[in-house]
Write a structure and sequence with these properties.
This protein is an alpha+beta fold. The chain is 52% helix and 17% strand.
């Protein structure tokens, strides 16, 4: 179907009438005025037809641009590094991208029509629902969630946004185990580099904890409105950052033990290294794990009591006893590390690079 108005037959009729009006004896003033008026109307119709055709072309171009924008959005949605979900008023997933599917260990299409709460790890569902529905959540907020990724728990930072008047909620899911920098991948087979990343993340955790404590302390002294603003702009982002740092530190701690071929069995109370096994007590296990996550860092006895054991009521003499026992067990296992004591500095676990 043509986008132009069918003016050709009308123009032919006008030309015929004008020709007949020009014959001898056929010229009449009234007829001539009518023909002139008709001629002007036809000209206006031609102009309107051309304008309509131009607007129609502009509309088609706008529709093509809109379709291109939709496709670009679809590509960004599907290929984004973070997971994206869209849920309806009943918290049922209506859209999901590829990254969200990877986080949950399944295809993005299989997430559609699932309830959001069913995607969470079973033990964390009640707490997550309570936090997301609390009054402070509002239209925009965030939370640390545990996802059920094909039977494996996955820690994510979830940010959500609800637009006024819309039943949809948009979710952004950031994998807290994802490396912060690309160069981390170079240390996957090198225990020495893994220890350096452990030290880096431990320092980042300590700094972030101090910032969070400071922000929380300031918030406690403010009015309700000012406190909510500070919680939204500083405290919650710091909490999410701290969760990410801790998750990366714990990931490097596990990877470091795997690279060292060192296995700590909490249930059986054993430490295994290349075929050798030694029994350890609960406090020895806590001390070993604490120092392994902070290799090369010295801690005084008071710090070990408070941070490794959370038992400040114990004495420094008891710390020396446990350190001595753990040192002998590590030496018997022939682990390439030494639990050293330095006057005025404290205790540290040093590895042979």
């Amino acid at each position: 179907m043509s986008d132009e108005l069918p003016l050709a037959p009308l123009l032919a009729d006008v030309a015929r009438l004008q020709a007949e009006a020009g014959l001898p004896g056929a010229r009449q003033p009234i007829l001539q005025d009518a023909l002139d008026s008709l001629d002007r109307s036809v000209e206006e119709l031609q102009v309107a037809s051309e304008e309509l055709q131009v607007k129609n072309e502009e509309l088609l171009l706008a529709l093509r641009d809109l379709e291109d924008e939709r496709q670009r959005y679809r590509d960004l949605f599907d290929l984004a590094a973070d997971g994206y979900l869209v849920t309806d008023a009943h918290d049922v997933v209506v859209e999901a991208n590829r990254a969200a599917g990877e986080l949950l260990g399944r295809s993005a299409e299989s997430l559609l029509a699932c309830r959001l709460v069913d995607l969470l790890a079973p033990g964390s569902r009640a707490d997550a629902v309570r936090r997301l529905r609390q009054p402070g959540s509002g239209q925009v907020g965030d939370a640390i969630l545990l996802l059920d990724s094909d039977g494996v728990t996955r820690l994510v930072h979830a940010r959500f946004r609800r637009r006024d008047g819309e039943p949809l909620t948009h979710w952004t899911l950031t994998d807290l185990l994802r490396p912060l920098v690309e160069s981390e991948s170079a240390a996957e087979a090198d225990p020495a580099l893994a220890r350096r990343w452990l030290v880096i993340y431990e320092e980042l955790v300590s700094v972030t904890e101090a910032l969070l404590d400071g922000a929380t302390g300031r918030a406690a002294a403010l009015s309700r409105v000012a406190r909510e603003h500070l919680l939204e702009t500083e405290v919650r982002p710091l909490e999410a950052r701290l969760a990410h740092m801790r998750a990366r530190r714990d990931s490097w701690s596990r990877r470091h033990r795997e690279q060292m071929d060192l296995e700590i069995d909490v249930v059986k109370g054993e430490v295994r290294y290349r075929g050798r096994v030694v029994a350890v007590t609960r406090r020895e296990h806590q001390l070993l794990r604490f120092l392994m996550e902070r290799p090369g860092t010295y801690f005084p006895a008071t710090a070990l009591l408070a941070r490794a054991w959370h038992a400040s009521y114990l004495s420094e003499e008891q710390v020396r006893t446990y350190v001595s026992r753990l040192r002998r067990k590590l030496a018997w296992l022939e682990v390439p590390c030494e639990l050293v004591t330095r006057r005025q500095r404290g205790y540290a676990l040093l590895f042979s690079d």
